[in-house]
Design goal:
Strand content: under 5%
Oligomer: single chain
Number of strands: 4
Number of helices: 14
Largest sheet: 2 strands, antiparallel
Structural class: mainly alpha
């Protein structure tokens, strides 16, 4: 065996290569030979996690990348570019828009939002504690673009992720299956109230409007990027509080701003621009994480805006549906969602918000009690109102035990609400759920059949 390996010059070592070669000649390809007491734990103990010579999954960080400095002066167009790319991280996770959107599509926070290095630099760029020597004399690159404008955008991004995280942990969608909940011990503006974040974004817009150090073209472009972030914070907050009546004006504002952003993209960055250093796909490797993560490529900016538009369309549809009391309408819409899906409208966050609107904490459609589901079921399936149906059962009941009305009502409610909510499950879970639901429907049928056997016949009087 000549592979360049040389034994150590140690008299206590003995070369056993020939014995292994002799023994292995009678073995089939792929066969293994174990000592009697040799277990999997003993085999794994031979590998040292994080040791480059043994751990094939270890990829060392790129030392050639220049260190990130949050105080490097930026031009207004570079700040616009950074804010746009930040949106894609969120939306890639749900899918400010590129980083945030990446999270919404199922990637981890560490792969998306937390790869935006200004997230970790927030304490350093606070305008109240920033050092005077960071104020650059270059009038085209005022430090307020970082300490006021970019900081407000980052705080808004994190607050959107925090509000979305609160919706996603309700249990309507499943961690590690539909989305990733691991925060890697990184704060996401949880301590900031929504009103505080909105105030910071308003202050940034005021600074932009009154600044004489930023050209009017870029003042407008920066404002067009902060307003939709503020609008998203308000939308996500309204979703948690179920203030659906606030949706329409917020959605219209976001759409108008999105049109302006699409129409005025920032110019291509120069090769010497520091803006790309704000994103480090390898940064997740230094965070506390339960699983090894690979760097991901963020989507093209146009796809990010498409995803954001799809998110706004979905929320608008929810604001319309919530005013419709008929559960059959929700059933039809959910079926169309499955069989004729629209692009960018299947984000885990959207599916969770629809399920929360259908049923949460014993309330149906944010206003009805459980009786509403039974009433809808009877009217839509049998054309019989709820109260006459129950009255007829109670009048005609002749069974030895009490009439199991409560059991029937709870079962119908659970089955009907569960079926409608399942339209917004992921495909595999919906298939498994519907398979289990079939047995429950048969059980309800058997219960109603048994009840029918203990009902007195209807005697109709014939007038002659």
């Amino acid at each position: 065996m000549d592979d360049g390996y040389h034994m150590l010059d140690n008299n206590s070592c003995e070369d056993v290569t020939a014995q292994f070669e002799q023994t292995s000649r009678d073995m089939e390809p792929g066969a293994l030979m174990f000592n009697k007491d040799f277990l999997l734990h003993d085999a794994m103990a031979a590998f040292e996690i994080g040791e480059p010579r043994f751990d094939s999954g270890l990829v060392l960080l790129d030392d050639s990348r220049p260190p990130f400095d949050p105080f490097v002066p930026l031009l207004p167009e570079e700040v616009c570019w950074i804010i746009d790319r930040a949106f894609s991280c969120e939306l890639r996770l749900l899918r400010d828009f590129i980083l945030q959107m990446a999270w919404h599509t199922g990637y981890t926070l560490s792969q998306t939002v937390f790869s935006f290095l200004y997230v970790r630099a927030l304490p350093d760029i606070d305008p109240d504690i920033i050092s005077p020597h960071h104020h650059d004399p270059d009038r085209t690159r005022p430090v307020e673009l970082i300490s006021v404008v970019l900081r407000a955008s980052v705080l808004g991004l994190l607050k959107c992720c925090d509000l979305a995280w609160r919706e996603l942990v309700k249990g309507n969608v499943y961690d590690c299956e539909d989305w990733q909940s691991d925060k890697c011990d990184v704060p996401m503006s949880e301590a900031y109230p929504v009103s505080g974040i909105l105030g910071i974004l308003d202050e940034a817009c005021v600074w932009i409007r009154n600044s004489s150090r930023v050209r009017s073209t870029w003042r407008t472009a920066l404002t067009h990027r902060l307003v939709p972030r503020k609008t998203l914070v308000e939308l996500f907050s309204a979703l948690l509080s179920k203030d659906y009546f606030r949706f329409q004006p917020l959605i219209e504002t976001a759409r108008v701003m999105l049109q302006h952003v699409r129409a005025s993209p920032p110019p291509p960055l120069r090769s010497c621009s520091p803006a790309p250093r704000a994103f480090d796909p390898q940064f997740p490797r230094v965070l506390v994480s339960a699983i090894p993560l690979q760097p991901i490529q963020l989507p093209e900016q146009s796809k990010v805006w498409d995803t954001l538009a799809g998110l706004l369309d979905s929320l608008e549809q929810l604001s319309v549906l919530i005013e419709i009391p008929d559960l059959s309408t929700w059933d039809v819409v959910g079926t169309l969602h499955i069989w004729q899906p629209r692009p960018n409208q299947s984000l885990a966050y959207v599916r969770s918000t629809f399920q929360s609107a259908i049923y949460e904490n014993g309330i149906i459609l944010n206003k009805y009690l459980w009786k509403h589901a039974v009433d809808c079921f009877l009217m839509e399936a049998l054309q019989i109102p709820y109260d006459p149906f129950i009255s007829s059962f109670q009048t005609r009941w002749v069974g030895p035990d009490s009439l199991p009305l409560r059991h029937i009502e709870c079962t119908i409610t659970e089955l009907l609400i569960g079926r409608i909510k399942s339209h917004w499950y992921n495909p595999l879970r919906r298939r498994r759920y519907c398979m289990k639901l079939l047995f429950d429907w048969h059980e309800l049928y058997a219960t109603l059949t048994d009840v029918q056997k203990h009902l007195a016949p209807v005697v109709s009087s014939v007038v002659r």
